[in-house]
Known about the structure:
Blueprint: H1 2-19, H2 23-27, H3 36-48, H4 52-67, H5 73-89, H6 95-106, H7 112-119, H8 125-135, H9 140-153, H10 159-165, H11 171-184, H12 187-194, H13 202-214, H14 220-230, H15 234-247, H16 252-261, H17 265-277, H18 283-290, H19 296-308, H20 315-321, H21 327-337, H22 344-354, H23 359-371, H24 377-386, H25 390-402, H26 409-414, H27 421-434, H28 440-449, H29 453-468, H30 477-485, H31 488-501, H32 504-514, H33 519-530, H34 538-547, H35 551-567, H36 574-586, H37 590-600, H38 606-613, H39 622-637, E1 641-644, E2 662-664, E3 670-681, E4 684-688, E5 699-705, E6 716-719, E7 725-729, E8 735-743, E9 752-754, E10 756-759
Antiparallel strand pairs: 1-3, 2-9, 3-8, 4-7, 4-10, 5-6, 5-8
Helix pairs in contact: 1-4, 3-5, 4-5, 4-6, 5-7, 6-7, 6-8, 8-9, 9-11, 10-11, 11-12, 11-13, 12-13, 13-14, 13-15, 14-15, 15-17, 16-17, 16-18, 17-19, 19-21, 20-21, 21-23, 22-23, 22-24, 24-25, 25-27, 27-29, 28-29, 29-31, 30-31, 31-32, 31-33, 32-33, 32-34, 33-35, 34-35, 34-36, 35-37, 36-37, ...
Amino acid sequence: MHRTFSLLAALAFTSFASAAEGPPAIISLTYSGDQKALEALDAEVSAAGTDTAKLGALESRLLGLIRRADLTFTARQAIAQRLGTVLAQSASPGRGDTYKALANLLIDDRDSDLARLALDRAAGDSIDALFVTALGKTTGRSHLGLIDTLARRRTAAAVPALTKLLQDSDARTVAAAARALGEIADPAAVAALRALPEPSSPAVVAAKLVAASRMPPAAAPDFLREIEKNAADPVARAAALRLSLGIETATAAARIAQNLDGTDWTFKQVALEAIAASTAPDLAATLLSKLESWDAPTQSAVIAAFARRNEASAVSAVAKSAKHSDPEVRASALGALGVLPGSRDIATLLAQVAAGKNSTDAKLARQSLARLNGPDVNATVLAGAERGETASRTVFIEQLALRNQTEGIPLLLKLRADADSAVRLAALAALGDLAPPSEQRALLDWTLAAKDDAEQSRALRSLVNVTLRNPAATRGRPVYEAIEQGTPEGALRLLPALQRIGGPASAECAARLAVKPEEKVSTAATAALARWTDGTALPSLATVAEKAALPAARTAAIDATLRYFERNRDAWTAESTTLMKRFLESTTDTTPRRQLLALLTRAGDKAALSLAESLVKDTALGDEAAYAVAVIRANLAGKPKLRASNPASLSNILDGKTATRWSVPALGEEWAEVAFAASRPLRRITLDQTGRAAEYPEHYEVYVTDDPKSPGAAVASGAGQKGNKTVIDLPAGTRGRYVVIKNTEERKDAPWAICELYVD
């Protein structure tokens, strides 16, 4: 035999020299190394197909390689896998020699795993016999490996040997043998397992459960009852019950009810799980007959299980439970009614509960009514919205929108004439969610005709919702026309809609009213512009500042603009400079003009520089204009550069986004430096920490200099400010090219973060 394998190894050595780039490639194979040798081998196996001669030659060569002592383990494992492929597809008459050789390897501690890997995919009694024979000749890890293979192959011939191993002194061997018998699960294997009385070890009872799941349905129930009754582990007993309920459907209904009668929630849970998918006859009738006898948690769980199985026969009982005294049962029933088949009566019941005083029940009922499906449900909702008690009508009206019942829109519009204000409010809210843009005019008329403040507010909200659903650029035109062509009272009602609709067209509409001499209308229109959340209203505010008939409107427009720029640090553009020019020219009041000039320091364009220079000789504005000129010139010189003790993510502090940040641990030695392209005056530094309110500097020092190597004394110091911003005012006359901000004290509870750095 030794000579035979030496010859085989030599043949393999020679063959792979051509097929796999020489023997060293296969001999020294590793998982991460060059795989060309294996790729060549795989190609050869694939090319062999079912050719007996080619597969026989491959069989011999691969077996020889496995025996080589100088191969890496990776190589031997890979070759064993390929040998298994060859054996699985080969019908070579010479394979008896191969099996004999592999049988010897099976009992070798070093090679047993490789032999199992090669043989496991090959089918047939002769292969099973090899494993069974080897089982009696091995111990330890090889022994356990063989048991595992027999389990995976479900080898019936191994049952006698495995049965003996159930008495082994080694617990691991007993567990492995039991598992194998459970997988095999033929009568002999089951008998061997049943011979081990309960309570048994966890491994044995687990094997019994596996065996029961593989047994013929008629034979399993008695076996499962033994486990259910006698197993030590309640989890195992529950598993036996679960299997039994699925197999023995004839008695499942009674057994489910029996376990629900008990107090053991482990078994109750199994019974409840079984309800949803059980095919047991008379299950629903059996459980419904006992539903009211169970405690509240059990009733609640059974009702939820009926919902999961969509049990139509349970609807009546569940509806009754919706009025149960226990809140847990009511909640389960109300939730189930939204899933179970619906009807006119169920819709009416849910509406009554939704209109009731119990807010928790009302919320659940509204949710279920919105989901309810069934004959006449939509018709019931529509009819209930039209007539009945106010409380239930408002519920049904709300449901028209929640259920997207667009057929209810004509009724909702008709309810504008209803005498009940609660009904009108509910109809308006539903229209806001349901009505298409084509109903904009109807809601506009309703808003103008609203009878009280609450109705007016609700109508206006719905009008805006419907208007915004229209994607057309002219969607707001009917509102603008109604505001400008209607009465002052109508304009005052509709003005709040403009800011919600938003955009330049809405702002321009507000401006056209703000410039008029009617004080109430002008004031309201200017106030609407002041509430704008983005910059689209700024040109309109400039128009008001320039053209308003009332001085108060002009002043209010400028004040609103100043507040906007104080709140927002939008990127400055040429249009921003144009706006500043318009505002500056719209007033002769020194205070706002100085404030507007201060805003102009954010600019970096030549038009802004010219504007500031034109005001330098103005007696009231000269110093402010000169300041602006110096800053704008520095801005025009180039963008500032940044340095820091920790440069990671430092660019975030000047990217215009408060969602990004520079963040460092606050150890008391951190700093950030801004180097402007030219020396400039400074008044104030703002460290924006939006969303990072607790990440302010513990104690800051600010240095301003033209020579970073000799910064001199700090020009400002103090404690950081909790909130969205730390604002640092600098002494008058502060000037320099470099600004250094330092954190000088440790903070243990938070880092120091700067989202944006603003210098004014």
